[in-house]
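Quick one: structure tokens for this chain, please?
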Amino acid sequence: MKIAFSKAAAPAGVALIVPAFEDGEPSAAQAALDAATSGALGKALKAANFTGKKAQSLELIGLQGLEGTRIVLIGAGKRADFTALDAENVGGAGVAPLLRTQEKAAVFLVDGFSVAKLGAGETAARIAFGAKLRAYRFDKYRTRLEKDQKPALEKLTVNTPSADAKTKFASLEKIADGIALTRDLVSEPPNVLYPQSFAERCQALEALGVKVTVLGVKEMQKLGMGMLLGVGQGSARDSKLVAMEWMGGKKGAAPVAFVGKGVCFDTGGISLKPGPGMEDMKWDMGGAGAVTGAMAALAGRKAKANVVGVIGLVENMPDGNAQRPSDIVTSMSGQTVEILNTDAEGRLVLGDAVWWTQEKYKPKTMIDLATLTGAIIISLAHEYAGLFTQDDKLAAALLEAAKESGDALWRMPLGKAHFDMIKSDVADIKNIGPREGGSSTAAAFIGKFVKDGQSWAHLDIAGMAWNTKDKAICPKGGAGFGVRLLDEFIRANHE
């Protein structure tokens, strides 16, 4: 779907989307439509009890004066409470009904629809952003879709008098492209997306100016990455480590590092998962997907910051060469790890990846993302990702970025007790702790590979990488969680 901005009146024969506040006077666009229909619009709204309440919607066809025009009304809530995220939700909710029709073109009438704290240009840009995110589809493998299952909407024009809406949207569009990339990655089946093919997708970012380095098994063996390689040794597909560099900031300045778990498929290994639900494990690379999408977004908008993205790519499979419970492996850091459960594999991948990242880049701040534990879903449902850090300043910055981006975080505990829980009787550490505090002990395990003095946070995104139902700005499926969060963190703190 192409998005354009225009000051001209909407042409005839296109669908019209009209946002409305719950309180106050109707927008200029809404008033003009009511006049064009000789008051029929206002009467229809009253009859349907449409008040403009947040998330309320009403679809009208055949109003007097606009007989051939489909009109979609979207409630925006109270004007005083209206935020940029609300504008995005209005954009997504406005487009959603049209994706179920055969409308080919639509106009979003936002003239007079804004609040002072945002301004007309920002409001229009955010509405367009939300619409673009909601229009995402992953249909590449669906060859038998009925006509009414295929969205026909090709063009959305945002009708606004603002001269700077297009400029403000340009940066947001690059973020949307990064989110779409992440959604694509987590949606791909595991026979298509595996370590080698994932690495090739990363190499495509070179067209944006990203430097991409791929390490294979031999290189990682020389580096001593026994944890990462141990996870992947049961797979017929070789493991990879990918580094993506965007150096848009001051030359020579230490970068911010993002590190992502990239388990392209997770059977659990010898500690085999139950069959029901195992199909979901294609998106156990959601952390790596978020890092890749964030790097695409930052490079796409030419962020004035030095950022590196590192992802460990493996498959966790149970063949005759697979890692066993009670194996002891040696990490790149030199620490030994007792493997008690081969399904606690993501932390092993991340441990070597974060150590290598510190050795290679000496980052001023490091954030890892992983679909790491089911325990975080028990704690936070599918409403928040878990934030673990002992750096209060970094925690505050990430929580503020979460608030601004809509990628919700909740800070979880990480203390000495959690590190004590993963002490091993036969090695330096073990890869699981007791049942209680499972998310915190998983974070502590990664923390054992963070050097003293290194600013670091762990984000457990297990409950946020995949949507089981449609949301305002995201259809069912891959959520693209983390891309906006990381982009906002860089924008607010490192540009």
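Residues 165-187 form the longest helix (23 residues).
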